[in-house]
Amino acid sequence: MFKYSYNSLVYYGEDVDTSVKRVAQFGYDALELYGEPLEYDPAHVRKLCSDHNITISSICSIYTAERDLASPDEKVRRDGIDYMKRVADLAAEVKCPVIIAAPTECTKLTPWHNPDEERKWAVESMRKGGEHAQSVGVNLAIEAWNRYETYFLNRIDQCLEFMKEVNLPNTGVMGDTFHMNIDEASIPDALRLAGKHLNHVHLADSNRAAPGKGHLDFVPIMQALKDIGYSGHLAFELLPAAADPFGTLKKGGGREFFDEYTEQAIGYMKEIEKKLK
Ligand code: LER
Ligand code: MN
To answer: What is the helix, strand, coil percentage profile of the chain, to 5?
Structure first.
């Protein structure tokens, strides 16, 4: 019923060939690429996808302090917009429908300037990047992150407000169950609120491990997605339980996030699907 994807961010240090083969082997529809466009050869990715009957569901943009769309520094905002354009171009080249967008650096916990002005800059920057994405046929999914990763958009209702201000037809919102577990009063209600504007989803359990390894109840979450007629991808975005998950991966930890969790995540959700009304 649903289309599944796996975010390659956790396949740290691996070539895209191996990642595509792994998700194909475990019955996925798609792979989510991490957002560093220079690391991919689009023609090669297209060929790999067609050889293994996989699509690219989405691109997980990486927003850093140098790419912050709300920065008081005009050059930083421009670099952020240019980055968004490059991610959109890669998406178009690999036939990927949606790229993740966020107004701030991931882990920016306080504004660097007057918050109202930051918001105005964020809206303007997102609109400029989004207009380019629209011109190459790509949609933006505005993602809410929990309070420990941004002060800006922590919940779906805030993303919907921001989306209205950006005011582009190719812009929607997305939920990530790891963040939602922290900052939404109810994950299913937030998904219902997003309704037709929901254009991407990240799935992870409460501890960011594969569903079934934490304490989230995925039945009402998936029921809400079914009830709103969600037709986009469900992409597992799983990361090691550490303050510095990439440090863990760099040291060779988190091996269960490769084969073991890739297999377990989709298997668990297919069982959940059987319980839906
Ligand atoms: C950040 O925690 C996150 O959820 C990612 O999707 C990064 O874009
Ligand atoms: Mn996410």
So the answer is: 50, 15, 35
Nearest to 72 by CA among 7, 122, 34: 122
Of 2, 7, 1, 10, the residue nearest 235 (C-alpha): 7
CB-based neighbours (< 5 A) of ligand 2, an ion = 176, 202, 237
The fold of 3-273 is TIM Barrel (3.20.20)
Query: What's the chain's average pLDDT?
Result: 98
Mapped onto helix, strand or coil, the DSSP state of residue 5 is strand
Give yes or no for residue 68 CB within 6 A of ligand 1. Answer: no
CB atoms within 10 A of CB 59: 26
- The predicted-structure confidence for 91-122, as pLDDT tens digits, reads as follows 999 999 999 999 999 999 999 999 999 999 99
pLDDT-based confidence at residue 221 (cuts at 50, 70, 90): very high
